[in-house]
Amino acid sequence: MLELRDIVVRYGPVVAVDRVSIRVEEQQVVALLGANGAGKTTVLKAISGLLPCASGDIAWGGGVISKLPPHRIVRAGICQVPEGREVFAGLSVYDNLRLGAYLRRNRHAVRSDIDRMYEYFPVLAERRDQAAGTLSGGEQQMLVIARALMSSPAMLLLDEPSLGLAPLVVQQVFSILRRICDDMRLSVLLVEQDAETALSIASYAYVLEAGRVVVEGSSVAMQGDESLRRSYLGY
Ligand SMILES: Nc1ncnc2c1ncn2[C@@H]1O[C@H](COP(=O)(O)OP(=O)(O)OP(=O)(O)O)[C@@H](O)[C@H]1O
Ligand SMILES: [Mg+2]
Q1: Which ligand places an atom closest to the C-alpha of 210?
Q2: Which domain holds residue 98?
Q3: Tens-digit pLDDT string for the chain (235 aa)
Q4: What is the secondary structure of 17-35 as a DSSP string?
Q5: How far apart are CA 51 and CA 204, in angstroms?
Q6: What are the pocket residues of ligand 1 if the criterion is a CB atom closer than 6 Å to any ligand atom?
Q7: Among protein residues, the one whose CA lies closest to atom 31 of ligand 1
Q8: Whose CA is nearest to atom 12 of ligand 1?
Q9: CATH number at residue 114
């Protein structure tokens, strides 16, 4: 289980995340929703060890990880997919996937995981020798997710995977993701502005506003509460 306990994250004097507490159980998909500037990416960066917590702490798998450097957090099984689909543009799809497994020693397992990614994302198999920079936006999003999965994580932190993608492609990416979560026993913290889509895959959600959690609850409850949806989720 991942547990953020009252974390505060600052950029100099500016408090970007203010006493946020979030839990993600094993194999659970949790959505972190909120408008531009709400603090969503900052929360993910704090979990990944890219930003320090000014106070509060982050627990994972029975230990506190909030003082660990980023590579130790990756080794502990938490992998962040950053905003903006950063593939290694000049490298092939295959090499991008292989690089996702750079911490792993078992070459046989890596090879079979690459094949597994090709099964989940057949379009990546078709384009395995193509330079990643020539993929479409949706294909690049699939590639960064697949590359993150190649590190064999227990927890995936996804930052706005739907951004800039056509609704149909978003549905496709999310439904593959749902399957992968079940198969790989993965936990996911999913950051999204597209609340409607995020709630369709998550079982629980938090809404951030100006660095604070203003609402939390099960996806079913949020989907069923029209005034909450209108006030906080924009749909
Ligand atoms: N490096 C930085 N230095 C100073 N302030 C920052 C920095 N990065 C982010 N902020 C501020 O912290 C707040 C939260 O930013 P954050 O990127 O976490 O928001 P977000 O919810 O991810 O927004 P978006 O949906 O636009 O990606 C914003 O007010 C932002 O301006
Ligand atoms: Mg962001």
Answers
A1: 1
A2: 2-233
A3: 999 999 999 999 999 999 999 999 999 999 999 999 999 999 999 999 999 999 999 999 999 999 999 999 999 999 999 888 899 999 999 999 999 998 889 999 999 999 999 999 999 999 999 999 999 999 999 999 999 999 999 999 999 999 989 999 999 989 999 999 999 999 999 999 999 999 999 999 999 999 999 999 999 999 999 999 999 998 9
A4: EEEEEEEE-TT-EEEEE--
A5: 25
A6: 11, 14, 16, 34, 36-42, 193
A7: 37
A8: 16
A9: 3.40.50.300
